[in-house]
Amino acid sequence: MVSVIIATRNESANIERIIKSLTSQTYSNIEIIVVDNGSSDNTQELARKFLSRDNVLHLPDYVDLSNVKNFRGAQVNYGVYKSNGKIIFFPDADMTFDNNLIEEAVSKTQKYDALYIPEIVIGKGFFGKIRNFERSFYNSTCIDAVRFVTRRYYELVDGFDEKNIAFSTDDWDLTKMLKQSGALVSITKSVKYHHEESLSFSSYLIKKIGYIDTFSDYISKWGADDEDVVRQFSVKYRYFTVFVEDGKWRRLISRMDLAIGVYIIRIMLGLKYLLNR
């Protein structure tokens, strides 16, 4: 069985879509658990249209959150605790998937312990094209993070570090813990679709800038000299190497209009990061 854990907060615009995508999978032996954290909209009610009440949980009813730094991590961890599957899948609520994704993941986890999923960003207008172009360079790099994990390895690392690592670098942290523990990692051919139709250029910048203050705990945990940390926060890797390594430079120069857009966004975020250091 595959346990799908969806962490939600005010996801009424997305929750039905992701559940329908999951229930349309070619692999049917799945359980879907929604763990909500204080939604003020009708996310929970919409989820219960498709799922039993026992599978739609309100985290504050079960977990003391007073010492929790990463609520998304706490939501997924509690969902895993309540789940039964040997494979854990934790997508974001604003995602959908190729119909054969879970079937492929089940097959791959016969050999591997954790899996990345290629991502296609679905956005609006030219900015949406820039976002999708940029994201395509990150698949299975240190900028990416796994989404499928065997229960054995998830429990071995105690899941997300909800007490010490804030949301934003928490998925990098989990991926690093898994690899450090010996997990074999691969990537699926099937893709996930990240729905950013409502995300504008300005709201994207505000969202990303809001993450800047969360980086210090992650860097402190792994060390500023850690190979992945150096790449994740270095100008050289984030602005050059990740776009040209493994022959990706061909894709970069094939769409110079989108490449210029990517660099404008990266420079704006980089300047803000430097100002906040």
UniProtKB/TrEMBL annotation:
Instruction: Name all Glycosyltransferase 2-like domain ranges.
Output: 3-142
One Pfam family assigned to this protein is Glycos_transf_2
Its name, as the record gives it, is Glycosyltransferase 2-like domain-containing protein
Q: Which organism is it from?
A: marine metagenome
